[in-house]
Write a structure and sequence with these properties.
The structure is a single chain. The protein contains ten helices and eight strands. By secondary structure, the protein is of the alpha/beta class. Bound molecules: S-adenosylmethionine (SAM). S-adenosylmethionine binds next to helix 3 and strand 2.
């Protein structure tokens, strides 16, 4: 559905039909998806750039390959950047392996954010990333697919404890806080209840707690289009996601 919002060609008829139902409730969903990718781009450029100097990324919930994948964004700034991509959807992983994996530069791994210990033990991730050095941990548009029963705060704390000081966390999270038409949003969330991916939108206070043990960078946890916007950033009249970038001191 996300790929369809972004104008991609990798979807089934059932995905497109469900996406159209969401768009009927939330007509700005397409622009919101585009702004999410733009936020990701700004954050990865910032991390890979001279100020942060991050040379390796762990992108969990990578999604289907799309224009300007994380390794392309990072390598435009730091040509030596390495990326480990993770997703729990076998279709996403097989597309990713075909389109993103490059020996010594990018690996694509099937894994589940709900099992952070398993991810940290994964031999392909461990062979590709050096956990004694800072990592850019990307949890963009993925944590709201992790329900409370999977204890997302524990997931975050396991990952935080595993990465070296100087690592960064990049996170966006869907929220009802920022949506004025709550009824339409609730109906859109119900569309996902009939899919294989249940949405767990969370309020700002809950999302803030995912940053426990991290130091949030300016401008803090903000609607994603307001995170260090550039002239091309769309001034969305609404936003459905909080976004933040933080460093591990
Ligand atoms: C909306 S896409 C986001 C893609 C990309 N991060 C972005 O922001 O453009 C969410 C992706 O997260 C994946 N995902 C959902 N739950 C996951 C989990 N528990 N572990 C790993 N990946 C997950 C989905 O399969 C999907 O590919």
């Amino acid at each position: 559905m996300y790929d369809y919002y972004l104008g991609g060609l990798t979807s089934f008829a059932v995905d497109r039909a469900a996406a159209e139902r969401v768009l009927a409730y939330l007509p700005y969903q397409r622009r919101s998806a585009e702004e999410n990718r733009r936020f990701l781009g700004r954050a990865v450029e910032f991390l890979a750039g001279p100020q942060c100097g991050v040379g390796q990324f762990l992108d969990i919930g990578m999604g289907l390959p799309t224009a300007r994948s994380v390794h392309e964004i990072a390598r435009a700034v730091n040509p030596a950047a390495r990326v480990a991509y993770v997703d729990n959807d076998p279709l996403v992983v097989s597309h990713g392996k075909a389109m993103l994996a490059e020996p010594g530069r990018s690996v694509v791994v099937e894994g589940d954010l709900r099992d952070p210990d398993g991810l940290l033990r994964d031999p392909d991730i461990r062979a590709h990333l050096d956990f004694s050095r800072p990592v850019g941990l990307l949890l963009v548009n993925v944590l709201h697919w992790v329900g409370d029963s999977a204890d997302p705060r524990r997931v975050l704390s396991v990952l935080r404890d595993a990465v070296a000081p100087g690592s960064y966390l990049v996170l966006t999270h869907m929220s009802m806080d920022l949506i004025s038409n709550k009824d339409a949003a609730a109906r859109a969330v119900r569309v996902y209840e009939h899919s294989n991916a249940r949405l767990s939108p969370r309020g700002r206070r809950q999302v803030m707690r995912f940053f426990d043990g991290w130091e949030l960078l300016s401008p803090g946890l903000v609607p994603k289009h307001q995170w260090r916007p550039r002239p091309e950033t769309s001034p969305l009249p609404f936003d459905a996601s909080w976004a933040g970038v933080a460093v591990k001191a």
